[in-house]
Design a protein that fits this description.
The protein is mostly helical. The chain contains 15 helices and 4 strands. The chain has a 4-stranded antiparallel β-sheet with strand order 1-2-3-4. A hairpin with a 5-residue loop joins strand 3 and strand 4. The chain binds a DNA duplex through helix 3 and helix 6. Keywords: DNA-binding, Nucleus, Repeat.
Length: 288
Amino acid sequence: MGRPPCCDKVGIKKGPWTPEEDIILVSYVQEHGPGNWRSVPTNTGLLRCSKSCRLRWSNYLRPGIKRGNFTTHEEGMIVHLQALLGNKWAAIASYLPQRTDNDIKNHWNTHLKKKLRKFQSALEFSSMAATDEIVYEIFDDSTRAGSSNVKLNQSSSSSYASSTENICRLLQGWMRSTPKINDNSIGSTSANCDLLSCGDDQLESILSFENTNNVALVDKSTSKTTFQDSENGEKLNPERKQKVGHQKNLNNDNDNPPLSFLEKWLLDESTAGQVEDMNQMMELSSIF
DNA sequence: AACTCTTCCAACCGCGATAAG
DNA sequence: GCTTATCGCGGTTGGAAGAGT
């Protein structure tokens, strides 16, 4: 006999997650930490399979997730890493703090692939000594699209970086539309009731998050999440946390020199300059 | 205003690797 | 060592929202 099933397929809910379900999941993970997803549906009463819970947590509710538009630098990183690693979205995501692999994958498929295609065809045309008129026609579409790069830079600061803020936003919208909470629909854990009755400040403190190596600390004034290494108490910003994680992995995996080389290369300013060059080219395309 | 088309992204599906019994 | 479930990943899809006609 092998393992028992994580959940029977009967009665499993599918589709978009409701704020109630999010709160239940977040409060459970706060209490027990991420992992052991198999027990999550059973212990929380969520009618979701463990897989769905894990996905919801890692792609949406996990602290430190930045949502919203990608910066030019992030896009450059993705383009470079995709060229080097292929469609290894999880690997690429590990170099982009606060972005999920799903987010990167979506952004690549919907934006970057098109941008690159245009960029490459523009290069081909220009190498064939094309006239200005031809180049103008190539980029005309992006001009009409509303100068997406300018918009991108303007709104890049509107991203939000923690599950606290995610949940607060969800709650704010949801509470407005749902004047009275139906306790039966939410579940039976006391943590859920606490979450629903507390204010934003309280919610943020409840949502401080601990995993195996790092403790996430939520800054109430900025809603930003910082990480503290539970081993040595060192405070880390999310980016630093990612790097420390990498360093640990690298130390544990000595027969993987290409990765450390890649990391060095990526952090090299001269390389970053090349990325910027390419992005400037792409931005030029929207100016034409 | 109503309809169609396109874009975008959250969530699902299927598969390989790994772990548990 | 075998069987079976879980985990994590990449590909794909469904539907909401916006744009165009």
